[in-house]
Amino acid sequence: xxxxxxxxxxxxxxxxxxxxxxxxxxxxxxxxxxxxxxxxxxxxxxxxxxxxxxxxxxxxxxxxxxxxxxxxxxxxxxxxxxxxxxxxxxxxxxxxxxxxxxxxxxxxxxxxxxxxxxxxxxxxxxxxxxxxxxxxxxxxxxxxxxxxxxxxxxxxxxxxxxxxxxxxxxxxxxxxxxxxxxxxxxxxxxxxxxxxxxxxxxxxxxxxxxxxxxxxxxxxxxxxxxxxxxxxxxxxxxxxxxxxxxxxxxxxxxxxxxxxxxxxxxxxxxxxxxxxxxxxxxxxxxxxxxxxxxxxxxxxxxxxxxxxxxxxxxxxxxxxxxxxxxxxxxxxxxxxxxxxxxxxxxxxxxxxxxxxxxxxxxxxxxxxxxxxxxxxxxxxxxxxxxxxxxxxxxxxxxxxxxxxxxxxxxxxxxxxxxxxxxxxxxxxxxxxxxxxxxxxxxxxxxxxxxxxxxxxxxxxxxxxxxxxxxxx
Length: 472
Prior knowledge:
The chain has 472 residues and is α+β, with helices and mostly antiparallel strands. Among the domains are: 3-163, Beta-Lactamase (2-Layer Sandwich), CATH 3.30.450.20; 317-463, Heat Shock Protein 90. The chain has helices spanning 3-58, 69-81, 111-115, 156-191, 193-206, 221-277, 282-313, 324-334, 356-373, 404-407, 419-424, 431-441; strands at residues 89-93, 99-102, 121-128, 131-142, 145-154, 320-323, 342-347, 351-354, 379-386, 390-397, 447-451, 455-463. The strands form three sheets. A five-stranded antiparallel β-sheet has the order 2-1-5-4-3. It has a five-stranded mixed β-sheet with strand order 7-9-10-12-11. Strands 6-8 form a two-stranded antiparallel sheet. A hairpin with a 5-residue loop joins strand 1 (89-93) and strand 2.
């Protein structure tokens, strides 16, 4: 469903509800006002009849000390027919609330009568058949007798007017909704014009025209949306530029790889040729062989790490629940004190969801880099501690440190902060690149805290997750 149609329908629904509730309130207010007016007139008429009855009772001959029932009926009959072309509906009851006189057609029940006492005047609206009446009740005190006078006033016209009002308002509501629908159609079309422009712009960009920009025709939220869309288009062009840069970076990677191969191969070929073509003394022969061995080991390490990166990018790993202390315990056995570097291991118990061998590879590379960055006799700290939602591994050294501007580059393949220092220790700039790829598979990343001259702390967090098993 189009947005303009949704806007039109929602507006019509709100408008229909508003007109419905307001119409009900208005018609009902007029009805209640009219009904209250009729009730007031009925009570006034009841008061007039009460006064007329008491006046007529005073004219009874003095021989009667108590008003007889026959006289009550006579007075009531006169009141019923007197002063009007149509008879009134009234009923008179004695002290025991037994009916003494009732007009023909007075069909009200005795509910109101039972509620009347000597000091109250009450009324209620009742329905008899298809007619509505205001039923009033009042007490009479005359000639030492307590009588009760009830009247019924026909108010059916008030209810008919209410029904007529509802019927008329329904017709008016329908007409207003039809007119409103036509007006809202044009308003919705005008309001959604920026959206149609954005839709067209989206289609053009999907077709490859990334330079196309949508025209901003308003300053409201939709105008802001158009501006944001154009900003997004600018960002898209920038991303395309970044992709082109990545292609260039891959070419640089190939060039760096060729260079990294060329340097050790040149040394290997040169010293091998020297051994082959010259007769050297024992010391020079050992030195040449040592150069060949050292550069060969560097080539071997570089080839293994490149292979690991390629395999890791294929996501060919199987995760399982692993004990963190078992991994760190393995590292503790591998890196023992007594050499050029002192190692400190501090870790807590915990479990991780990971591929154990890959995490070991990450830690080996981080510890190896920490050793290369440290001076002889320095300390490398390896820590592990449990978090609320995972487990953190951290490797800290007190070596040369990494400049802030270099920190975001060190995970690129073949990138080395200090190339001479790295190559002197058989580094090729692939260790952290491999670590970054492994942690990417584990939905984690390296966190680097470093200050030149004071050392570095490189850490990462692995999530804790229950092992899922399917039993058949």
